[in-house]
Amino acid sequence: MSYPLPAAEIRGALLALNGADVPFRVRNALPGERADLVAEWQVREVGVTLRTRMRFVPENREVRTLDERWETSPLGHSGRRYDRGPSTMVSRQWTYERGPDGRRRKIETARLDPRDMRNPLLEAVLGAGWTWRGVLFRW
After folding, report:
1. Are 54 and 40 in contact (CB under 8 A)?
2. CB-based contacts of 113: which residues, under 8 Å, 6+ apart?
3. Which of 6, 25, 29, 125 lies at a CB distance of 3.0 to 4.6 Å from 35, suitable for a disulfide?
C-alpha cells in the first residue's frame, strides 16, 4: 500500500467504521454542516451528544476536525450547554442496587467517553498517512 492514501479511500475507511460494535455513526455531511463527513454519538441516558465534523484538505493531506458537544441540563434545570473543541469529559450515569450479599452498591448504567469515538476516527486518518488537525472555529 502506498501512502498517503487518496481522499476517497480515507472517506471509505471512516464510513467503514459504522457497525453494531461501535456506539457512534459516521455519515455524509448535510449541506449546512460545511463538512465532508460527520461522526455523531448520542447517549440519551446521560443527556450528551457528541459530533465531529470532518473536512478533507487533499492538497495538505489533512483532515480538519471540529468537535462539538451538547449537554442537556440536569432535571429541574432548563437549557442546553454547548462546547466546542476536543473534550476529555467522561459522562456517566449510575444507579444503586442490592448485591448478592445484601449490601447496596453502585452500578454504572450509561457511559460516554469522547475518546471512544475520536480514537477510531483518528487511527483511520493517521493510518492512511494523513494529518488530523483539530480546529476551534469553522473553516
Report:
1. no
2. 90
3. 29
Write the CA distances from 139 to 61, 116, 126, integer angstroms. Answer: 16, 25, 21
Q: What is the pLDDT of residue 129?
A: 94
Dist CA 134 CA 65 (whole Å): 5
In the numeric block, the cell 461522526 is attached to 39
Check residue 77 and give its pLDDT.
59
| Residues forming a β-bridge with 69 | 50, 83
What are the cell numbers at 53? 465534523
Q: At what angle do helices 7-15 and 115-127 cross, to 10 degrees?
A: 150
pTM here? 0.80
User: What's the whole-number mean pLDDT along residues 69-94?
Assistant: 74
Give the length of the chain. Answer: 139
- Mean pLDDT along residues 110-129: 90
> What is the model's pLDDT at position 2?
60
**In the chain, where are the structural domains located?**
7-134
CA–CA separation, 38 vs 36, rounded Å?
7
Cβ-proximal residues to 122 (8 Å cutoff; 6+ apart), any chain: 132
